[in-house]
Amino acid sequence: MDVNVLGVFSFNHETFGERIRLNSTISGLKNKICEIWNVLTPLSIDLFFIRDGKRYSIETDSDLQSLACFTFAKGETSVQILVGRIEVVSNSVVCSEVSSCHSITSSSYEQQGEVTQPLLSATWADVFTHVGQIFGGGAKEFRMKVLQYSIESGYGIKLSKNEPKRVTVVCSKKEQLGCLFKVHACRKFNLPHLFMIKELNLNHTCGAGFRDTRRPPMSSRLVKCLMLKELMDNPSTKPKDIIKRFKTYYGVDLEYYFAYAGRNLAMTEIYGDAAKFYSKLVWYTEALKKSNPGSHVVLEVDTKTRQFQRLFVAFKACIDGFNYFCPMLYLDGTFLKGKFKGCLLAATGKNANQAAEVDSVFKSKDYLSFGSTYWFDLTSKNKSRDYLVTLFCNCVYASTLFEFDKAMDLFLEVGGSAVKKFLNGASSEHWANALFGGNREELALPITFSVDSIRVKIMNMMTERRELCRSWSSYLCPNMENILTEKINLGRSWKVTKSMPNFEMPIEVNDEDKIEPPACRPCPGRPSKKRKENIGVVKKKAHTSSGSKSYV
């Protein structure tokens, strides 16, 4: 395989091209770079490239050849490689200088004799390299690059022309100070997804730029682009987590509005518009009925407004399972966290094993059912109930296993035997956040994703319990088998005498055997028949089926 990729090397706003093959070496490239730029030496050159917002160094021949193979396999004809300069500072600490920076930039700084990790925004000031540079995302990607350049360089920018086919960027101080900075890009071959720089002048004649970390020029679309991949991996990322990430990895203070709006845009791009998924419920319910014969699925919609009201799902496997449960159902519920809110209810029952609960739907917060069943016992049978309730809540909402163990030890120490009885038979993974095995944040997803995650949860749960039942060697469930064995062992020492088979109670009693009941005192007060009538009482007749009767 003939691997031949064009390497575009950039340093100090200057570029040159060199072919990279499988026989290319780092030393040969560094010598070539030194011939182009005399200020560099082979020992002071630092080669790296940026992909997906991360910095990757090129230190060995294998790194260079792997980059060429990767670029060739993706079908790309060129790869951009940035050239940095390594300098020794006064305290014998080595630091890497990016092409457009001075001795030490704002993105890589020295602290207590050590150079910290460069920020991910370190290369934003070098997003524009040469005339003819192509942006595969079209005008949207070009505008994002302009915003990144403004954030990192500290210069204010203005879009003098902002059209789908062409965009012109100038300095915000052009009218006041006549700054010559200008970047003009337009479509290449009139293709909407290809944008190419036609004119480039990166020289700011207005003075130095100031990088504002507290109120940088920001947009929710930039937040979406930077956080899209992380939200795919972890949909439970909250706006406050995005703010911390921007402060740590990009060195800017992000406002809550941009974090919230950017997260919503990213979630919409990943999962789609939540409102449109309600229209897909009709297809989804029909698919459930066809793929799960015997299931009961009911979708209720307001006939006048066509607004969603409720959805009931009972799978055939769950219906069959409830027939073998104890004749008692528990109802568990939790709130949905999506855009349109709502409530999720689940029917729960006890099987013959007594230790395992089989649910009809996904448990988002299992401690709700646990608390509704036993909360009265905890609060009414203990004098220090308020303090115990606080300790129990600490166990429920503990975020880590260490915090849960610490809170549980204190809960058991204070509560004693009453708490042990309260927790008997309730597995911690069913009510403690730290031990819960599911994904509670799926309640914030669109409705079809939430319902389908419930289906997958039930399917996995039933598969695990089916495999567990196959390992049973007795006819009874393990818990019942243990109880029966314990009772049998306890009764081995008992001596049981059999009653007389012909012993019967006589029907008639002889006169000699009659016994009268004990005498009792009459009820206090005057008998009703001898009571005197009050003056002025009118007698009324009450009509009955047998005739009339007078009463007072």
From TrEMBL:
Record domain Transposase MuDR plant: where: 127-188
Pfam families registered for this protein in UniProt: DBD_Tnp_Mut
Biased amino acid composition, Basic residues: 527-543
Region (Disordered): 514-552
Matching PANTHER family: MUDR FAMILY TRANSPOSASE, POLYPROTEIN, PUTATIVE-RELATED
Name of the protein: Transposase MuDR plant domain-containing protein
Originating organism: Macleaya cordata
